[in-house]
Design a protein that fits this description.
The chain has eight helices and three strands. By secondary structure, it is mainly alpha-helical.
Length: 165
């Protein structure tokens, strides 16, 4: 555990204290949530610039091994994010992060609801030893499927698409 200390103005502190009491949350839990949100936001916006120091280009992408499991587990967050991508691609010619996030944060849609969208999506844009596996590429807010996993994802696409009504 590392200790982080900083100062905030009185007005902000008062509002923070009120929010904590309304939410019945500890300072530590709330601040940890803020730090995680900050990290996810940075990964989301800066992820396309990230280049691992040890490229995994000669190895089989992790997602190729995981897509079959994600495909059959509709409750899994990565499944829901991929499903959101396919739904958005059916609705529009191009898919944006906003399109996917909107679907994933809509709690009235259990088939795509993923409250941790930002964290998981950020992990699905990088191929590193600790990531879940790269599935997407993003440029200027537009999302595409990474060409190295596209054939595998296409093979399992029917599992991710919602049932026809």
């Amino acid at each position: 555990m590392k200790k982080i200390t900083f100062q905030i103005d009185n007005d902000l502190h008062m509002k923070f204290s009120i929010a904590l009491s309304l939410k019945k949350e500890t300072q530590r839990a709330a601040l940890e949530k803020c730090v995680k949100e900050y990290i996810a936001d940075v990964f989301l916006t800066e992820g396309e610039k990230y280049s691992p120091t040890t490229p995994l280009s000669t190895e089989t992408p992790k997602a190729i091994k995981r897509i079959p499991r994600w495909a059959v587990n509709a409750d899994q967050i990565n499944h829901k994010i991929i499903r959101a991508y396919f739904i958005a691609s059916q609705q529009n010619e191009t898919v944006t992060v906003f399109d996917m996030e909107k679907l994933c944060l809509d709690s009235s849609r259990p088939d795509t609801y993923a409250p941790t969208f930002r964290n998981n999506y950020a992990q699905m844009k990088i191929e590193t030893a600790k990531s879940t596996g790269k599935v997407f590429e993003e440029k200027n807010g537009f999302v595409t499927i990474w060409d190295r996993v596209a054939p595998t994802l296409e093979k399992y696409k029917e599992y991710f698409l919602p049932e026809e009504k």
